[in-house]
């Protein structure tokens, strides 16, 4: 079977550091190829994941464009998508398209008389109500958690093939041998939805060292962010994520107990994550998929978070982490993270969130989509 995996023009696969969807695609592709699937990847030229063929309009990820006004963003998305569409018109060797591109992906693919398409929904589906409310019927969909689908518009939920949880290669390999440190970590892009300000408030109250890791609006270092913050004419200086960091997170950053280390990647990221006493998820939205949660489990770091979105599907309260309904409850559970057995977390990740588990689920869905086309 030959599958065109469309991950979009925003970041390379795997991403250099932060990248939710691209990390998922980077996890899925090797596991599909191990199972004999030929993969054509539509992404950017700097993608280093091994594939049978790479299609790219742009050499490098266009993530910075995502911060710009909407019409420029869609310009990039459309250029990428037009290339995918042209390819699908010109050839007949692609059996199925596995699409991961928000809105523009399905919109363009639905207008083609091409191979069947499975679109993976990665977002909070309330984000584009008009689009998801009238999702093209010719395209099959799956979600990344049951809770995400439960909030989907009725027709989309009814048509979906179910939820496939996210996975991580960390669940397949041996865990890094590290001494546990005292710090709590929040791993994620810095924005109000991920709740870094709640983490900072909480850890200061409890006297726990906190490391916040993740980019602000694509800025990976304090110096890069300073350059934006100090230039009132910079197009990003009034961006909500930049304002959030400056106004709500920065006041807690004392360089000692509470630190922001910017975006981290590779071994540095894994070391920082794996040596933490707990991974904190004080999320302020209904997290659709939560790659960072399954990564924490795979590294044997107990996740402690608010009972929202997909978190109750990923964390078994009291066995593999803790879930709380309020910030006060979080303050009670966080110091108890040491009661969770790291081996239990790792075993859970191997059983439920490994690349093989995800690939088998997708192969099953590919089979169903192909069978529906033939029927
Ligand atoms: N991440 C990273 N470096 C950072 C912050 C995050 O590599 O500094 C990774 C993180 O490990 C995870 C992904 O980026 O793999 C974020 O995905 P998640 O689903 O948790 O969040 P979202 O897609 O909502 O941003």
TrEMBL record:
InterPro entries, A to Z: Glyco_trans_1, Glyco_trans_4-like_N, Glycosyltransferase_grp1
Domain (Glycosyltransferase subfamily 4-like N-terminal): residue spans on this chain: 18-133
Keywords: Glycosyltransferase, Transferase
Molecular function as annotated in GO: glycosyltransferase activity
Glycosyl transferase family domain span: 183-334
SUPFAM superfamilies: UDP-Glycosyltransferase/glycogen phosphorylase (SSF53756)
GO BP of this protein: carbohydrate derivative biosynthetic process
Entries under PANTHER family matching the protein: SULFOQUINOVOSYL TRANSFERASE SQD2
Name used for this protein in its record: Glycosyltransferase involved in cell wall bisynthesis
């Amino acid at each position: 079977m030959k599958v065109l995996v469309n991950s979009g023009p925003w970041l390379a696969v795997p991403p250099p550091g932060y990248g939710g969807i691209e990390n998922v695609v980077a996890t899925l592709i090797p596991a599909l190829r191990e199972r004999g699937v030929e993969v054509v990847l539509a992404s950017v030229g700097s993608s280093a994941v091994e594939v049978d063929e790479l299609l790219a309009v742009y050499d490098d990820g266009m993530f910075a464009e995502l911060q710009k006004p909407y019409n420029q963003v869609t310009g990039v998305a459309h250029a990428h998508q037009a290339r995918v569409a042209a390819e699908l018109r010109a050839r007949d060797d692609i059996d199925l398209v596995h699409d991961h591109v928000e809105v523009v992906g399905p919109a363009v693919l639905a207008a083609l008389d091409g191979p069947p398409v499975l679109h993976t929904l990665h977002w909070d589906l309330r984000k584009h109500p008009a689009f998801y409310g009238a999702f093209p019927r010719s395209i099959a969909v799956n979600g990344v958690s049951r809770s995400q689908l439960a909030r989907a518009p009725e027709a989309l939920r009814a048509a979906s093939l179910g939820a496939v949880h996210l996975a991580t290669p960390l669940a397949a390999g041996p865990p890094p041998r590290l001494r546990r440190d005292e710090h709590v970590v929040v791993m994620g892009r810095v924005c109000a939805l991920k709740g870094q300000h709640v983490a900072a408030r909480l850890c200061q109250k409890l006297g726990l060292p906190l490391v916040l890791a993740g980019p602000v609006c694509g800025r990976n270092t304090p110096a890069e962010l300073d350059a934006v913050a100090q230039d009132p004419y910079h197009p990003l200086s009034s961006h909500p994520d930049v304002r959030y960091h400056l106004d709500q997170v920065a006041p807690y950053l004392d360089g000692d107990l509470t630190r922001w280390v910017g975006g981290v990647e590779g071994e540095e990221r894994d070391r920082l994550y794996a040596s933490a006493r707990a991974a904190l998820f004080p999320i302020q939205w209904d997290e659709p998929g939560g790659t960072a949660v399954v990564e924490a489990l795979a590294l044997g770091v107990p996740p402690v978070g608010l009972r929202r979105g997909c978190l109750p599907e990923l964390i078994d309260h009291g066995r593999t982490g803790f879930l709380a309904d309020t910030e006060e409850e979080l303050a009670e559970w966080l110091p108890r993270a040491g009661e969770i057995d790291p081996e239990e977390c790792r075993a859970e990740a191997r059983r439920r969130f490994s690349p093989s588990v995800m690939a088998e689920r997708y192969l099953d869905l590919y089979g169903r989509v192909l069978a529906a086309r033939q029927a």
